[in-house]
Fold:
Amino acid sequence: MRIGIVGGGAAGMFCAANLNALKHQVVVLEKNADTLKKLLITGHGRCNVTNLKQPEQFLENVPHNKNFLFSAINTFSPNNLVEFLNNNKIETMQEDNNRIFPKTNKAQTIKNCFDALASFNADVKLETEVLSVSKQDGVFEVKTCNGTYFFDALIIATGGVTYPTTGSTGFGYNVANSFNVDTIKPRASLCGIRLKNTPTNLEGTPLNCKLSILEGNKVVATNLGEFLFTSFGVSGPNVFTLSAKTEKHSIAGNVLSFDLLPNLSSEQIKQTLKTYFKNNATKFVFHALNGLINQKLAKFILAKCDVLENKQCANISNDELNKIAEALKTLRFEIDNFDNLERATITRGGVSVKEINPKTMECKKVENLFFIGEVLDVDGLSGGYNLQIAFSTAVACANYLNGLGGN
Ligand SMILES: Cc1cc2nc3c(=O)[nH]c(=O)nc-3n(C[C@H](O)[C@H](O)[C@H](O)COP(=O)(O)OP(=O)(O)OC[C@H]3O[C@@H](n4cnc5c(N)ncnc54)[C@H](O)[C@@H]3O)c2cc1C
Structure:
């Protein structure tokens, strides 16, 4: 069979590596001057290549369309990936929360391995941007900037729309739409959240607390952990997870609420402050808060509550105490929206999973047209889940094609 793979990223190259070269003639069409540009920057250049959880626990970390992945992850699990890497002489190491990295600490190690395996099985054409795809009489005609190719099966592995400097600009959605295959409007995920009025004096301040996105009084998503204020709003692990846990397409106009002391109830906070104020009557109120929360934030909260930093604890009124306690429990900022696509780690949205056979990644409407990797409307949390999704969907597709007849 003549098989074309559009996109030489994680999904495309892994699929090429797993196709049977004795049965198929495989061509990878990659628009960049080199393959795996995005993979090289994963895990800060160290490549958190998977997460060694059993499939069931793995899927708990896929907040969007996890059921679609059930078959693919069970067929090619994180354990299978580690085995695959080890069989190809890549030693791996496990870090906190089951995250797996190459022992060299270099994404380049993974790239070298995939490049070698894929080019053994396939003709990898670089600087070959695919411009359009059509199908006639069972054959795909693929027009590129370097000529036209014809394939019996076509695999779209063009990634999402986030981080477009690595080559993923949403081309796969155009292909889907040209075949009347539904796509879900993309948005940024595993990303920062822009605030309407980011307090400039808090930029760079790290915090560890409970964050919630509120639409009116309804909690849209909530998460506990570390993050920091940036020039545009908030970012960091807790915020990334919060963005991925949010099903909504837009959070413009919603509220980001901080529970700075999630282990204490409002009543307990009031009592703690009351006791502190009583026992430290001559101290400045700033010092009372300084013991509880970050110094810069303590200043910010007092200003927000119209309480002077150097007011003595004995002179704090009940009203003021209640205001401070409330701000510690529900400090609110109006949200502008998710961060820009350019900076986000992954894309939420893409080719609708309803259009795809979850066992083979074949498009239900178009025979021999496949979608794998981030181009699909499925995404995981940070921690190696997204690369594993790319690998498992690639293997599902390769296994199916390997099971078909030869030329
Ligand atoms: C900064 C950053 C860090 C990350 N870290 C991790 C991590 O540590 N662990 C993890 O699991 N995930 C991580 N991810 C997510 C992970 O990198 C992606 O989910 C994964 O790369 C998706 O693989 P893909 O092959 O589907 O898409 P991509 O890797 O984006 O590959 C798509 C390829 O298609 C090519 N292409 C696009 N259009 C065309 C066209 N018209 N013609 C020809 N070629 C085309 C592109 O040039 C590109 O090479 C990270 C992402 C970012 C941005």
In short: The chain is about 30% helix and 25% strand. Residues 6-12, 29-32, 37-39, 41-43, 47-48, 129-130, 157-159, 163, 166-169, 171, 345-346, 373-375, 384-387, 390 surround flavin-adenine dinucleotide (CB under 6 Å). The mean pLDDT is 96. Residues 2-188+343-403 form a domain with the FAD/NAD(P)-binding domain fold (CATH 3.50.50.60).
